[in-house]
Specification:
alpha+beta, five-stranded mixed beta sheet, five-stranded antiparallel beta sheet, globular, 11 helices, 30% helix, 476 residues
Length: 476
């Protein structure tokens, strides 16, 4: 699969070079303001794609290198979330189910509790606690067997969370799983008081072993940046050490992805189960649900519209990846992979008459070294969404300039007008934005800007993007 993607990417990059030459030769001159900002940032026009269009009339207001396949970073979520909304419907829900392999007598389950993951992207700690309470309400007080987790809806992820940038503990690197609880993360609250450093973990998995090696300082915050360090002991994901020097002025907490998805789901479930008065002394097993097991509880997820809202507002990679997998799972009774998700998305695009030969979806989140799409194709997606049946749900999920999500600190002067609703994207060497701008005259435009240049993500790309967006706002 990796080799095939590499070959495809190599072909697209060669094709992109030819397209760039053609596009530059035929494109109209850029407005002077844009030329100036390109020069000021040291970015070549060949490293930028721009497509500004009227989705009502199809009129193009500004185009530059629109056919070039570029890395879109997180703006790829525009394609994934819209496709999921259209193909699954905004009220689509996922279901996490619990089964018993034996009878329940006088509150005792004489068998295993089997939990089957349904790919719920909205399975927060609060929802997970509610599921434990729901099972407890069936009358079960004690689980005499093991807790069995069936996560076979999705194929096991071959990736390592550290693979992308060596920061597997960051929630943006969390891998999708059929039973992904709380993005597999916990908040570590550290308090320095009286010469000691206390650590509180929320939620605290029952199977987590934490070594607190933190030293307390009386004043300030002795360390900047990574004020505490997390270390996995003996390559055991269940055994974590924290060390560092912490003072009263240090941040209150650190959020980290910990353990593996099934170990985290198991550990937090046991914690919640016991807090509800339930008893359990067994172990975790990973296995298929036995056919004879009896259904005892079902937890319904948030709606797809709610999941899309959070995915785009806060650019959640794991949920975007799970949406792609969900599109494939809806059409299959067997375990699905990211390749199946990409095939399902391609098939959906065909039903809408959208043909993007340069498209490389990869995992659907944009957190990828190989994902590619052109500004022309992204603009077509925005146009189709604008004229589609679920446009209110889709556009409502996009960050509003100066108000919320990943745009809350940009275009702040325009915030009261709410004229900018766009998805951002940043990755090493990439800055991008895609969405809708309502001009001062009330005209809605689709705007796509992708900058693929060294340092684009670190301040060189955003000034150009912001200038183009403001230029679009002034159109009649």
């Amino acid at each position: 699969m990796i080799t095939a993607i590499a070959r495809r990417l190599a072909f697209l990059l060669i094709a992109a070079g030819h397209c760039a030459t053609f596009a530059l030769a035929d494109a109209p001159a850029l407005p002077p303001r844009l030329q100036q900002i390109l020069s000021a940032q040291g970015i070549s026009a060949s490293q930028v794609s721009i497509a500004i269009r009227d989705p009502h009339s199809g009129e193009s207001l500004l185009e530059l290198n629109t056919a070039v396949a570029r890395s879109p970073a997180s703006t790829m979520k525009v394609l994934t979330t819209w496709s999921a909304l259209e193909s699954l419907g905004p009220n689509h829900r996922w279901h996490t189910r619990a089964y018993a392999t034996g009878p329940v007598t006088h509150g005792r389950l004489a068998g295993d509790l089997v939990i089957v993951g349904g790919g719920d992207p909205s399975l927060t700690a609060e929802h997970w606690w509610r599921f434990a309470r729901q099972i407890r309400a069936t009358g079960i007080q004690s689980i005499e067997g093991d807790i069995v987790i069936d996560r076979t809806m999705y194929q096991s992820q071959a990736e390592d969370p550290d693979e992308f940038d060596g920061k597997g503990y960051r929630t943006y690197n969390v891998l999708p799983d059929a039973l992904l609880v709380n993005l597999q993360s916990a908040e570590f609250y550290v308090r320095a008081e009286g010469g000691d450093a206390e650590v509180t973990v929320d939620p605290l998995p029952a199977n987590l072993h934490l070594d607190n090696r933190i030293h307390a300082a009386a004043h300030g915050c002795p360390q900047t940046g990574h004020w505490v360090r997390f270390t996995t002991i003996d390559a055991d994901p269940l055994h974590v050490a924290m060390d560092g020097v912490v003072g009263p002025a240090c941040p209150a907490y650190a959020q980290r992805s910990i353990m593996t998805a099934p170990e985290y789901a198991f550990g937090t479930f046991v914690t919640f189960w016991r807090s509800l008065g339930g008893r359990f002394d067994g172990s975790l097993r990973l296995a298929h649900r036995p056919e004879q097991a009896s259904l005892i509880a079902t937890l319904d997820s948030d709606s797809l519209a709610e999941v899309v809202y959070r995915t785009n507002k806060w650019s959640s990679n794991a949920t975007a990846r799970m949406l792609l997998l969900s599109m494939a799972a809806e059409q299959s009774n067997s375990s699905v992979s990211a390749a199946d998700g990409e095939a399902a998305l391609d098939a959906f695009l065909q039903t809408r008459g959208l043909h993007f030969p340069e498209l490389v979806v990869d995992n659907g989140s944009g957190l990828s070294r190989v994902a590619r799409i052109s500004a022309d194709s992204m603009s077509a997606v925005l146009g189709a969404a604008f004229n589609g049946r679920y446009f209110p749900e889709f556009v409502g999920s996009l960050p509003i300039g100066g108000q919320d999500g990943t745009l809350r600190k940009r275009f702040v002067d325009l915030a009261p007008q709410a004229r900018i609703r766009m998805k951002t994207g940043h990755l090493s060497g990439v800055a991008a934005i895609a969405g809708y701008v309502t001009t001062r005259s009330g005209r809605t435009l689709t705007v796509v800007i992708m900058v693929n240049a060294p340092g684009a993500e670190a301040g060189r790309g955003d000034p150009l993007i912001d200038t183009v967006v403001r230029w679009a706002l002034e159109r009649n």
